[in-house]
Specification:
The structure holds 2 protein chains of 2 kinds. By secondary structure, chain A is an alpha+beta fold. Helix content of chain A is 27%, strand content 21%. Chain A starts with a strand and ends with a helix. Chain B is built from 18 helices and 31 strands. A 7-stranded mixed β-sheet of chain B has the order 4-6-2-14-11-12-13. In chain B, strands 8, 9, 10, 15, 16 and 17 form a 6-stranded mixed β-sheet that branches. In chain B, strands 20-21-29-30-31 form a 5-stranded mixed β-sheet, sandwiched between helices. Classes of the chains: A alpha+beta, B alpha+beta.
Chain lengths: 329, 735
């Protein structure tokens, strides 16, 4: 057997110090992705620091911000009454992800850091994967790529960031709180993820050992209308081919506030500020929505298997905008 | 022999007799078996699809904790080759050379004290390959093409000439992709040697073939090989062959001198136990303006692994599906560096029916005739190839009852004419004429002095309900209450049983049990023949009736005797009888043997902007002859329908085009329907007992799946006006 050390952390600072000091250590929270990847031989940590007993779970409201502890489970967050009322599209995204069994284990912090479903990444017998071994190439670009990214993608990597939850969170400009050995810092989620470029192995701004402790989620205005539309082949238990998180607030007859992000198509959860700009100040119409969708999907990188997503994601966004706007009337 | 009092036993929705065992975890599946001193095996698979092994370093694996042996082609003994079976012969034995013919081919087996140790050590086997370019494309001109591999190609009339002169012709090409069987139970072999004797627990659908094959592979007497499979966690055809991993488990046990268990991983289930092949089928149809078929030409090409056989006749069923004077059907196979091709629920039929019933639907639009009416106008009243009456056929009733239950008359003929908000509504149907398949089978029946009966045959129950329906049938044939009858299976020490495949088990086994029970009644009559005190003395088997554990002269219920009284009176503890069945000869009986028939009606909803497709409801009407147990038979049709929805909308085994690697070998990536994808499924049975076997049954194991591909594709066309000729029908094809 491949042996590894299991440590249960009793205190946050100690956990951070332990992982930071050991380049082969990693955190273990819900484990719903990590354990699979260890079984498959993709991840081979020598030490797992179990943080599930740390006091990092729970949801608290502070004015118009919801502070969500990193160890809150997906199911707990979905059931939160404030989320239900003030962040309905986040609730939808949570409940459309995974299965209830997984959602009861998976944590918010872990969800943000979930690894890609790219089957070339997940099979260590495939030699070419820049995400596993920088510079080794990308087998997916020449392989079977359907569940892959078209935005933020390149010949170096087309692996999709598969989180549903992160899509409304980037649309909302959520803020991630981090704890390192040097102290705490906060990073807007829109600046947290790294587009792969030629270093697909670097997925975010975390330094080794830095721990997500909480996420601050700004609430939507009470009169906003939001939706999360997830398009996939089967009705349940599948990652998105395309998805769109949309929140609109109307100001007189025009769109006053717009939050737009796309899922299933980006190497990172894809915030679409261009689409937001294309919506703001205009009355809702199919033309405006279509223009926003065009603005959101600029310069896609496609391969044979992903080319259909360019049009599908635009239609997904238009439909989500229609639904959100329809909810306004 | 007539059966008067127990008729109510058969047909009723009797609960599964093995249900309590299954829901309490007391049913022993292959991986529930263990031995003291059990060792565990793990496999090493090739990561290339063609070439040869250039270097194999097992030193790290050998040194890994708990390792007992690492077996590769460099140290494996020479193994024998199993002789060919009627279909689906065993692959050649593994580890006999350095050639690689497909991705996932076994290059080593590691044996260790625990499964974890074996798995960890298997990862330490270092293999390097001299890879060559694999042949993976059906159209690769370098690939060998086999013509008429099943010797089922057929020709009547002159299809070419009839097509050339037909008033209306239609031609199209249909494709389907590779699917993987995916039984829930991971295939497991537990092998234990005692000298030359070998005991094997295995996830097989055919214990006798496994026994014979293992005896040949290891050069030991067949009489010493015993295969046990009281329960198996599904098969869908995956358990029809004797797979290399089964041979490796036995080899591992022999090598380390301990019993060995080998459980395949889910990814190994995608490369090691076969798959339904991709197909490309071209159909040409000629018809008169008023919708009479004058010609059908159906050519199918399927893939085939580099060595060995596979039974996948897609075109041949077209020859008897409709009354048409000029028909030509041809099947071809193309050898590629793909994993083993194998039967998966309704081999050939599943894909062939998709092509034929899609083409019939397309023709109906060309002609402006209702798709149901077109099928009825070309109804084959007799078997068109043999020119004989069917042994049973109620396909017309299937159509009529189905149309009524479904509400087919509410369908507006024009595509895209039915809508509900963003959703377009479509109705589609397919007719099914499933093949007939029956093979010889044997059984014994024993009645003991306590009035209980034990009926036995070395078959398997892969979840279909064999335990239950055969107990019901035996109880009826012996005139006993159901709780007094036990049917025992899954052990090669029992009389040779038929394969659980081809929807042929119930007819073959049922007929053998029919014979055994009749012979057992005869044995009781023989016992009392010369007994002047018995009211049955001198009675012939056709002169008695049975019921409530008692035989009596037909018409004189008082002139009879209980089985138990006869045994006591003659100092016997039990009486046993053997029964064997062989399929009848169609010329002799003047009947064409019929498989089951069916009609599938489907309503779909399509969101054309987003390419979303949902099946809203399915009505299946099936003629499967006599239904032994309506409850388990209905479950079979529902399960088949779900499998058909999977094939039509979701399932695709993806092969990486460069490497031949299976790229989606998990349940997260290979999509099978989840509950939320499955709508209301209604099932009805029509028809009368079949005349080709004494029990009157036809199989229900596969027909539920067949027709779903075409019915859904036809409904999609009706909803959207778009004809999808390739399965699965996914979002990218629809939006």
């Amino acid at each position: 057997m491949r042996e590894f050390e299991y440590v249960r952390a009793g205190e946050v600072g100690q956990a951070v110090a332990t992982v930071t000091a050991d380049p082969d250590a990693s955190y273990l929270a819900g484990g719903t992705t990590q354990i699979d990847l260890m079984k498959d031989g993709v991840l081979e940590p020598d030490r797992l620091v179990d943080i599930t007993r740390l006091p990092l779970a729970g949801v608290a409201r502070d004015g118009d911000v919801l502070r969500v502890g990193a160890l809150t489970t997906m199911e707990e967050l979905a059931a939160d009454p404030t989320v239900t009322v003030r962040l309905p599209f986040l609730r939808e995204a949570l409940l459309l992800g995974a299965s209830v069994q997984l959602r009861n284990m998976a944590t918010i912090g872990g969800n943000l850091l979930q690894r890609t479903r790219c089957r070339y990444f997940r099979d260590p017998t495939v030699p070419a994967c820049n995400k596993r071994h920088r510079g080794s190439g990308c087998a997916a670009v020449r392989g079977v790529a359907r569940m892959h990214a078209i935005l933020g993608a390149s010949e170096h990597c087309i692996a999709v960031h598969a989180s549903d939850m992160a899509v409304p969170l980037v649309a909302l400009h959520a803020v991630v709180h981090l704890r390192g050995t040097g102290g705490e810092r906060s990073v807007p989620l829109t600046e947290f993820y790294r587009v792969p470029g030629d270093t697909p192995d670097v997925e975010n701004v975390l330094t080794h050992g830095e721990l997500i402790t909480a996420v601050d989620i700004p609430l939507l205005p009470p009169d906003a209308h939001s939706t999360y539309l997830k398009i996939r082949d089967r009705v349940s238990y599948e990652f998105a081919l395309t998805s769109a998180a949309v929140a609109l607030r109307f100001d007189g007859g025009v769109i006053g506030e717009a939050h737009v992000a796309l899922g299933g198509v980006g190497t990172i959860p894809w915030h679409a500020p261009e689409a937001e700009r294309a919506l703001r100040g205009l009355p809702p119409s199919l033309e405006v929505f279509t223009a926003a969708a065009e603005a959101a999907v600029r310069d896609p990188f496609t391969v044979e298997g992903t080319a259909f997503k360019v049009e599908l994601v635009k239609r997904t966004l238009v439909r989500a905008l229609r639904t959100a706007a329809g909810g306004a009337s | 022999m007539t059966i008067v009092e127990q008729l109510d036993l058969v047909g009723e929705g009797v609960d599964r007799v093995d249900g309590p065992l299954k829901v309490t975890g007391a049913a022993h599946y292959p991986n529930d078996f263990s031995f003291p001193d059990l060792a565990h095996a793990a496999l090493v698979r090739s990561t290339v699809a063609a070439g040869r092994i250039s270097r194999l370093d097992t030193s790290a694996a050998q040194a890994s904790p708990g390792v007992l042996a690492v077996i590769t082609h460099q140290n494996a003994p020479s193994l024998g080759r199993a002789s060919d079976t009627v279909i689906l012969s065993a692959p050649p034995p593994p580890l006999q050379g350095d050639r690689i013919l497909h991705y996932g081919q076994y290059v080593a087996v590691v044996v260790a004290g625990t499964a974890e140790e074996a798995t960890a050590a298997a990862r330490r086997v270092e293999a390097e390959y001299e890879a060559t370019e694999p042949l993976l494309d059906l159209h690769d001109p370098r690939a060998e093409v086999l013509t008429d591999p099943f010797e089922l190609d057929s020709s009547r009339g002159d299809a070419g000439a009839a097509l050339a002169s037909a008033e209306v012709t239609f031609e199209a090409t249909y494709t389907t992709v590779d699917n993987t069987n995916n039984p829930l139970g991971l295939f497991t072999t537990v092998a234990a040697w005692d000298g030359e004797a070998l005991t094997v627990h295995d996830s097989t659908q055919w214990p006798d073939a496994l026994r014979t094959a293992l005896a040949q592979v290891f050069g030991v007497p067949e009489s010493g090989v015993r295969v046990l499979v009281p329960f198996v966690g599904g098969g869908f055809g995956a358990g029809l062959r004797v797979w290399p991993h089964v041979m490796l488990a036995a080899l591992a046990a022999r090598t380390v001198g301990r019993p060995v268990k080998l459980v395949l991983t889910r990814p190994e289930m995608f490369t090691g136990v076969g798959h339904r092949t991709a197909t490309e089928q071209r159909i040409k149809i000629g018809a008169t303006r008023d919708g009479r078929l004058v010609a059908i030409d159906h050519e199918s090409t399927t893939t085939l692994q580099m060595e060995g056989d596979n039974f996948e006749p897609c075109a041949s069923g077209t020859a008897y599906a409709y009354a048409c004077p000029n028909v030509s059907t041809r099947d071809r196979q193309v050898r590629l560096n793909v994993t083993w091709c194998n039967s998966m629920r309704a081999p050939g039929e599943a894909q062939g029916n998709f092509a034929l019933e899609s083409a019939m639907d397309e023709l109906s639009y060309e002609l402006g005739i209702d798709p149901l009416e077109l099928r009825l106008r070309n109804y084959a009243e007799s078997q068109p190839q043999l020119g004989l009456p069917w042994s049973s056929k109620a396909l017309r009733e299937c159509y009529e009852v189905g149309a009524e239950r479904f509400g087919w008359s509410r369908r507006l003929p024009e595509p895209r004419s039915m809508r509900d908000g963003d959703w377009l509504i479509g109705y589609g149907l397919a007719g099914v004429s499933f093949f007939w398949f029956q093979k010889p089978c044997e059984a014994t029946a024993t009645l003991r002095r306590d009035g209980t009966a034990l009926v036995r045959s070395a078959v398997t129950d892969i979840g279909t309900g064999t335990y239950t329906v055969m107990a019901q049938l035996s109880a009826e044939l012996l005139g006993l209450d159901l709780p007094r009858v036990t049917f025992e299976l899954g052990d090669t020490d029992l009389p040779p049983g038929v394969v659980a495949g081809g929807s042929g088990l119930t007819a073959g086994l049922g007929s053998a049990i029919h014979a055994a029970c009749r012979n057992l009644v005869q044995a009781f009559l023989d016992t009392v023949r010369d007994d002047p005190t018995s009211p049955l003395a001198g009675c012939a088997v056709d002169e008695v009736s049975i019921g409530r554990g008692r035989l009596h002269r037909t018409g004189s219920p008082e002139r009879g005797e209980a089985y138990t009284d006869i045994l006591v009176a003659h100092g016997l503890t039990e009486l046993s009888a053997h029964g064997a069945s062989t399929p009848a000869d169609s010329r002799e009986v003047g009947l064409a043997p019929a498989g089951p028939f069916g009609a599938k009606f489907v309503e779909v909803r399509v969101d054309p902007d987003l390419g979303l497709l949902r099946v809203a409801r399915v009505v299946s009407v099936i003629d499967a002859g006599r239904i032994l147990n309506e409850k388990t038979a209905t479950s079979q049709i529902i399960g088949g329908t779900v499998g058909g929805i999977g094939m039509a909308m979701f399932e695709e085994t993806v092969t990486d085009p460069g490497s031949g690697r299976i790229a989606n070998a998990t349940f997260g990536d290979y999509l099978i329907p989840v509950n939320a994808d499955i709508p209301d499924i209604q099932v009805s049975f029509v028809g009368r007992p079949d005349r080709f076997n004494p029990v009157g049954v036809k199989g229900v194991g596969e027909i539920g799946l067949v027709g779903m591909g075409a019915a859904i594709a036809n409904a999609v066309h009706h909803a959207t006006g778009r004809r999808i000729r390739s399965l699965p029908i996914t979002i990218d094809k629809l939006f």
